[in-house]
Amino acid sequence: MSEERSTEEVAFIFTNAGDSVTLINTETSKYSYETEDEWKDRIKRNVHHLETIKAYKKADDTTSIWGSEDFTAIDAAIVTGKAVYE
User: Fold this and answer.
1) Is the pLDDT of residue 7 over 90?
2) Quick one: CA torsion of 62, 63, 66, 72, rounded to 10 degrees?
3) Model confidence, pTM
């Protein structure tokens, strides 16, 4: 069994998820140096990152690490991002 994440670690993970949310919500077109596929892949990686952290479990591999966090912005970014590459 792995070690439980501390409250501070959980808060850090949640806060840093905001970087992916911001990227998905603000980078609505590709950079001049990237192809359409590269841009879509970049968005897809960030969506996958958000989906992965939402699924984080405690050491029991059953119970979510999340408590009262509000996933509204994360969920919206996942929907927005998927609309780009699906």
Assistant:
1) yes
2) 60
3) 0.91
